[in-house]
Amino acid sequence: MQPDGQAPISSTDKQITSDVGTGMAYSKPRPLRTEEIPGIVDDFRCAARNTIEVGFDGVEIHGAHGYLLEQFMKDGTNDRDDEYGGSLENRCRFAVEVIDAVVREVGAHRVGVRLSPFADFVECADSDPVALADYMVRQLNMHEGLLYCHMVEPRMSNVDNRIPHRLLTFRKAFNGTFIAAGGYDREEGNKVVGDGYTDLVAYGRLFLANPDLPRRFEVDASLNKYDRSTFITRDPIVGYTDYPFLEDDHNDHSTIHA
């Protein structure tokens, strides 16, 4: 799927293990050359400028879930021996340079950053996620007025299937608005905001299945049940856009209570 069949870029040449369940095979990446990185940083800057110019209020820099910036940040996927590899500071250098460039271009008040230090999506994991999260929060604090820090809860297998709530340290350390994400429902979201655990709660899977999620939460209505098998699909009809709104009379999806 890369232009001209080129290898995808990464911090490493390690190939992701094929997905046994779906049969999906991942291409072998090539590590970015040191001299290429400033150009990628500038691509982020340019993309942010274009985003604001077409009318968006702000941008979120995606430093999570195994995407390029996180591949550099985590020691499980960064095996470089240049100034972008090795120490925690070096591994975070690329992400910090991107954040700095975007903030200079559009202003800190228009920039949020998403981080998932505890996740290991697509085999992108770190041996010390607490240290990684702490370092990145301190880097974000260098930008006065940064719009927000958006962090993903660690996933844990609990008897009662509750959220582990391990982000409080970073919420306290961050100087601005803190957003927590990961497995929240309406009740738990209201609770953690009310308790001061976080400023805001982000919803992903529930929003995919409920295009009017804020309204459903407001009136405490039942929710469409999401279909995980359609989350990553090329089907032009099934998934994403076929979930009904609250006022629709016909509802072909199962529902769960908020």
TrEMBL record:
Q: Which Pfam families match?
A: Oxidored_FMN
NADH:flavin oxidoreductase/NADH oxidase N-terminal domain residues are 13-220
Q: Which GO terms describe its molecular function?
A: FMN binding; oxidoreductase activity
Q: Ranges of Polar residues compositional bias?
A: 8-20
Q: Which InterPro entries match?
A: Aldolase_TIM (IPR013785), OxRdtase_FMN_N (IPR001155), Oye-like (IPR045247)
Q: Name one GO biological process term.
A: oxylipin biosynthetic process
- What keywords were assigned to this record? Fatty acid biosynthesis, Fatty acid metabolism, Flavoprotein, FMN, Lipid biosynthesis, Lipid metabolism, NADP, Oxylipin biosynthesis
Annotated region (Disordered) at 1-29
Q: Does the entry feature the keyword Lipid biosynthesis, yes or no?
A: yes
Report if keyword Transmembrane is assigned. no
Q: Which cofactor does it need?
A: FMN
The family this protein is said to belong to? Belongs to the NADH:flavin oxidoreductase/NADH oxidase family.
Q: What name does this protein carry?
A: NADH:flavin oxidoreductase/NADH oxidase N-terminal domain-containing protein
The source organism is Setaria viridis
Q: What is the lineage of its organism?
A: Eukaryota, Viridiplantae, Streptophyta, Embryophyta, Tracheophyta
